[in-house]
Structures are given as C-alpha cells and as structure tokens.
Amino acid sequence: MKNSIVIVDDHILIAKALRGIIANFENFEVLYECENGKDLQDKFKANNPIPNIVLLDISMPIMDGFETAKWLKENHPETLIMALSMQDDEKSVIKMVKNGATGYLLKNTHPADLEKALLAIVKNGFYYPDWAASKVFASLNDRNNYNEIKITTRESEFLKYVSTEMSYKEISEKMFCSPRTVESYRDNLCEKLELKTRVGLAVYAIKNGYV
Length: 211
Hints:
Layout: E1 3-8, H1 12-22, E2 28-34, H2 37-45, E3 53-56, H3 65-75, E4 80-85, H4 90-98, E5 103-106, H5 111-124, H6 134-139, H7 143-147, H8 153-162, H9 168-175, H10 179-193, H11 198-207
Parallel strand pairs: 1-2, 1-3, 3-4, 4-5
C-alpha cells in the first residue's frame, strides 16, 4: 500500500507540479491539495481521508504553515508533517519543529532527494537535512545515551530559551549573565551532544521536554 500525501500550498502551479513529481514515486500517492491550513481543516472535517504525510508550505494566507503544523500536532498527531518552504533561516526551522514538523525541506530540492526524504520520514518518523542536525532525531530513540550525558542546571535553563526567537544577548539578560557566558553554555552543550547549530540544540530541547 502506498503512503498517502496531502499537499498544502497556496501556489497552485507548485502544488500541481509536486503532485506530478510524486506520481512518479513508487511508494507514495497524493490524495488531494489544499490552498492553506484552513482549507486543510475544512477537508478533514468533510471526512476526506487523513493522509500519512502533509507536505506543508510555511508562507500562506489565512492560515500559515506554523499555525497549521500546530493544529495538526494537537488534532492529528499521527500525521507526519514535512515542511516544504523557501525559508531556510534558523528561526523558521526552530518554530516549525516546535509546532510539530517532523521534517523540513527547501523547495529547490531535487525530486530524487524529495523521494529520499519522504522514505526517511516514513521509516524513522523524521527527516531533517544535515545543517538542521538530523542526527539529533536519529539518537532520540536511544534514551540511554542521553541519560549518560550530564547537563548542568544552568545549561538546562539555557535549553529552555534556545528554541525561542530570542538572541543570545536577550537570553543572557533572562539568565542574568553575560552574553559570553551564554555562548559558553551553547558551546559546552554542542560538544556534549555532538551538535553544531542552534537548530540542533532547539530540537534536542523540544524533544526532551526542556521547553
């Protein structure tokens, strides 16, 4: 049986092009397309089939990808969310992860890479490119590895803020310390968790209940 997909994108040509591309994938099929999150809600309420995966754009009118991802997480947690966007900034990735996205791709992705990403999200429950620290997700299944890592009280406090949109200077003000001290928390955690970016730290914080 093929894995079902619903495309949510306000650009009709892009949605149709994606549908055509996915039609060539052996293990996937597109059920229908939606113009925004509200359209998706309406189709779900009208008893249209619930897909295995939602391919979700971020910038949309009426109900954008952030709000849609949060709604899906709260009402259909079994549905995997693959963000497919032109936005590659850390804030967008962090916010989508926090709102429930289990994958993130850019729209300039090659069709072959899209298929690989879809296969990965079905197999592992997540897919993120290297720069978004996908290996964090891969190791989340092994709780014992994390239990061996000693995280200090102040580092735990830092993890509460790392998934927000605050700058490191703003975080330092919240923690009543210098920006340099906050950067040391970041560097120590990256070393302990074998991460390279703030996105990776944010993913870890969200998945492990620090937020």
